[in-house]
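Sequence, structure tokens passed on for absentees:
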Amino acid sequence: MDKIVTKEQLVSAATQHGEPASLVERRAAAFDHFITSRMPHMARFNFSDWPLFAPNPALAFAPSQQAIDLPDVKPTSIRLVQFGQTTVSVRLPQQWADSGVILMGLFDALKQYPDMVADKLMTIVKPTENKLTAYHLAYLNSGVFLYVPKGVELDQPVEVDLIQDSTAPDREFNAHLLIIAEENSSVSVLQHTTTRGNYANRASLMVEIDAQAGSHVAFSSLDELGDQTLTYFKRRANIGRNAKVEWAVGLMNGADTVGDMDSELIGEGGEGDSKLIAVTTGNQRVGINNRVTHHGQHTTGNINQRGVLLGKSHLVFNGIGEIIHGAHDANAEQQNRVLMMSPDCRGDANPILLIDENDVIAGHAASVGPVNPVQMNYLMSRGIPKPVAEHMVIRGFLSSVIAAIPADRVRQELIAILERKLTDGNL
């Protein structure tokens, strides 16, 4: 696998991959910006020295050689599975294909629908924002495209399985999910990210959602990347007039992770609802910015984050509600709560309100602390062993977010992942 150290090498690799000239040009511009730009900043969380990109990265598109056991699915299921840079399986029932729904690998979509995809790809998240966004576009090597036409309402979730290939070293996983929901459409997306293999690698994961007027996008993600996968993620939605985007994320990665979730309420009457659960173990470090920005009038933004810390881990929640001048009658609410299960861990819950308008409603709540001893004594006095009691307390602490996830299957998978994470963390 050749290392890419010059812009000319990057352009050559992308051209040989058969990419549209417009994307090749944007990769080259992102390469230049990567060289000159700075790392992003996160309040109360320093990750500037993390090796989030390879010193001499490669841009390669070799298909994965290992076999993947595909789960049994119903004939009506909508599902795409990718392993590394290989799209292993796509299932899109004919009725939805006939209605204009598109579900395919990102690079296949760039070849079949170059104008549609290129016009949106990394325009919601811009490569010029910082060093990590520039790196993502310059070395983008995997991804999924989902398009839901105007007025189409999918009555079942679109399932996207992204499996990182860490069966060998030097396999960067720079994956991108682009979702376009046209006017008055409706779609629920379930993304599950996992790792195959134990080699140390990096992951740069992005999601862009274009939720146009009157649309509804429910995006759930179960993140379970491996113990050797250093991860950066960025997820952003542009939310149009009277549109709604619901985020429900279970962040259960095994290694250090930093990322952003953004809801941009651009149109009047837009709504963004962001729910996130994180569990950290060992010496893990996790930092998250969860932001809702109100641009339009009569918009509603909610943030609800809950974290559980074990071992010597460190978790930072920054909840950011921003109301731009002119966003009359905006409503920004947030909760950031952290439960510390070990005296050696460190947690921060930071509510941040940035308000430049008078006619608004805004509020926040934050808490950081250990398990309530009264709760533990109550459970243990009734014969419940301490480990079981601790699990019950944690489940109760997270229940308000878990219960708010709309899909029962997603809730059950999240609970199963949570139990594995707690067991691996020796709780």
Observations:
- The chain has a mean pLDDT of 92.
- The longest helix spans residues 386-402.
- The chain has one domain: 7-61+78-424.
